[in-house]
Amino acid sequence: MTAPIVELRGVTRSYGSPPTVALNSVDLTIDEGELLAIVGPSGSGKSTMLNIIGSLDRASEGATRIAGNDVMRMNDAELSALRAYTIGFIFQQFHLSDGVTALDNVATGLLYTGMPARQRRARAQVALERVGLGQRLSHHPRQLSGGERQRVAIARAVVGEPRLLLADEPTGSLDTKSGAGVMEILRSLHASGTTVVVITHDNELAAQMPRRVYLRDGEIISDEREASA
Length: 229
Description:
The chain is 31% helix and 28% strand. The protein is of the alpha/beta class.
């Protein structure tokens, strides 16, 4: 049986005073190698869950374990190392540096590993080739289409070969064809062993996933899985 890479137990996250509850006593287990969507409308708690799974934020109550690590007991340096070596992030906004080539944008994903610059750039080239951009290494973001920019962002997210990939609305700013291309890449990464979690409000996109976790008002209201073949 595969071991969980994400375990949330009774996780609550509240903000402010009086408190606004963004997540309310959530239990969620994600096994290594899964492909799933976390689905819900604006304000449902998706972004908060992304931040907690990605160790960008801590729960107010409950237990969070990521890749076997008790996040609540980790200091900032340990959390930074967890993100650098275990978790990759893809955001709807590409967050690429305009004055930097695709190759160097991707290489920045390895800055915190202490890897030498030449090795970082070599790994970045491999990652760009993996997403079909081997001929765009020296292009700047402004010279690329939206779909190509998202592929650069994906390459940056996976250049460190993370076990867990979190994709926040990865097709939200793309046309249908480019979005389909991005999803094909995510499925390919999943097929190679990466755990892929897609956070989305798009029910049509979620329907393509073998598992769908639905959030509303900070609570999981449904957790659906396709029947095994």
